């Protein structure tokens, strides 16, 4: 069984938002809601500035608070390690939204269920990468199977220093952030 | 459509490996649809959410476009689409589209129209055009356009005997640069894309080029690749742009002093003997003259002029030279800044020449080698223009795309002859030309104005007759010659039938020819298949398999056309008089201009005013995508970037709405302040294209503020006619 993860090379992100729109279309995300976003975080004072381009989405955590808090079992882990929502079971109580430390869930107002990034589960079944990854103009988003030592994500994480968001909350995220890969020899 | 396991296996068996997450290779649109089964269709086509012409593949289910993806075979998209490309469906299904022909029913500008049939509208247009041509001569009919529809109406005007055809892409954008590079290298730096070999560059200089915000798909892919591979970026920009945030050297230059920096760099390159001696000897003329002309531009002087630290100026150029020739100074695109812009572009070209980047890995690749047979489908030659066109104004080097404001001036003053009718196709002139007062005055002085467009923009809603074009997802265009590293041919074809009563521009132009009694210039045949048939004939003439293009890959390569680098048997050809790179331009000298660029200071803002600079958003193209649902959602209104210290000094908070007032007392709509460290203290910045004054654009209308409204002043570049538009100063009015 695969164990899916995404590696985000922040050096390659140019903030073009192609991922954001691809996701909206692919997943019929309602107006004003997003399953992924790109933050441009600038620090310093003129003219000494640094920037972090940070793509954020559901971290598909190993120890997901949304799963443990969900009263109906709608939010659950699948065998491939991803966190998914069973829409039929979701009652829209918003417990998962408040428990998520990454603020990446929304309520689909039309249907009343909670929603968020699914790693484009339907595309994975077709053998395709998630829509955001497929269209990432900078090639910043890299997707694959951590259980396959030959997958690109496994190779990168073996070779390159990486971090996760809010490691301290202990959720075990599966979105890994790196800077510059591969480095020029 | 549900994707069954059975279908997947069928498709997986067809693809090479079929491994999960090998990412299903796109081998053929038809094969993919067959594998998925059901009522799904994949249509390879070309995007037109901007002008980059990426290859796209439209997924159509039950007659509806549900997804657009990048065509992996197409070199401009390489399997990816940007935000705008992804959002093309939003344009197709936008309720605000023009739906049927309309005829003005009231005074111009009040927006009252009555619905008309195509026959009535086209008959009226033809009658008016004929009457004007009879009374004033065909040259009294002018056209302005942008993008694909231009070709079809250019055909109409030329057939009538008018050559008064102009595109804002020249004088309001890249024409200046193209002329400067033609004067230097005898070639433009690339038309559909700049020939920058960024994926192999070690150092990239971006001077007023905002990659990341300027979303030219394949170029940004290469830029990201270069950054990731450790290429050093030198970014010259008064604003800390996305590209600046990726740079090793951000040079926050004083606006208007770029030529000072470039000339000092040229001086350093020459005086420190860092240039490519062999290359300069072999391929260039005029080195000694350049050496002499730039001697006065010392780093000390440049530091003072540009307000950059001298050390930074020197270190950046030494770093550039260290890796030459695998480096590039990007030629840039939108070039109409200060009215002396040809010389800045010349300085960029000269610097590239001295570093030997033209034809070198990581520099500028050589144009692909491919000859396309000429194809005019048996149309007769155009009649000679009855009078010389006015589209070059008094600018000796104005190019073939024409100078829009020269057309506008002639329309207003009637000199040397009257211009009484405009056809405007696919360009929102009120927002693309500087000084809207003059554009409005010109339109008001017209006897007849016809607009061909997709949306009821502010310009369209001033027309006498409005002809609704269908979107790129509903029509044939092309075939397109694509010239990147290799030459190739791409197709645009409809994913769905045109909605409402909209029509393809080729059909509108062709029917207009017939109504004008110019049938011999119309497309052969009468049906909606006529253009597709013509495309087949064109493909045949070019030796390209039309079936392959239309059903399978959407793009075909011209074999053996890729010869990017200089080798012994692949020598560059320079189309200049000397057949060499002309560092010193006798052509310019002959017309009384500086043969080597010299520095001219520009006017500085008065106290308490800021220079207005403008740029782009990665999710919008000019003013034409603001109404598109997902793009509007992402970027609804623009902000004015104001240096934090200045904001504090003026008592303005981040996020507060203000109004800007320019030197002519013109005020814009209210606009939100972005108080930021990312911009110098002497200028403010906003993204171009917002602040529509078009009530029928339900989302875009009044969203943000219109920079073009504040650009009431412009300075024409005397060499090319490019309109310098960064010469306006604004003060901030706190009470919005």
TrEMBL record, chain A:
Keywords: 4Fe-4S, Iron, Iron-sulfur, Metal-binding. Pfam families: Fer4_11, Fer4_2. One of its GO terms (molecular function) is 4 iron, 4 sulfur cluster binding. Residues 4-34, 49-80, 81-110 form the 4Fe-4S ferredoxin-type domain. InterPro entries: 4Fe4S_Fe-S-bd (IPR017896), 4Fe4S_Fe_S_CS (IPR017900), ET_IronSulfur_Cluster-Binding (IPR050954). Coiled coil: none annotated. This is 4Fe-4S dicluster domain-containing protein. It comes from Candidatus Electrothrix aestuarii. The lineage of its organism: Bacteria, Pseudomonadati, Thermodesulfobacteriota, Desulfobulbia, Desulfobulbales.
Automatic annotation (TrEMBL), chain B:
One of its GO terms (molecular function) is 4 iron, 4 sulfur cluster binding. The keyword Calcium does not apply. It comes from the Bacteria. It is found in: Cell envelope. Residues 40-96 form the 4Fe-4S Mo/W bis-MGD-type domain. Keywords: 4Fe-4S, Iron, Iron-sulfur, Metal-binding, Molybdenum, Oxidoreductase, Signal. Pfam families: Molybdop_Fe4S4, Molybdopterin, Molydop_binding. The keyword Iron-sulfur applies. GO terms for cellular component: cell envelope. Heterodimer of a large and a small subunit. Belongs to the prokaryotic molybdopterin-containing oxidoreductase family. This is Molybdopterin-dependent oxidoreductase.
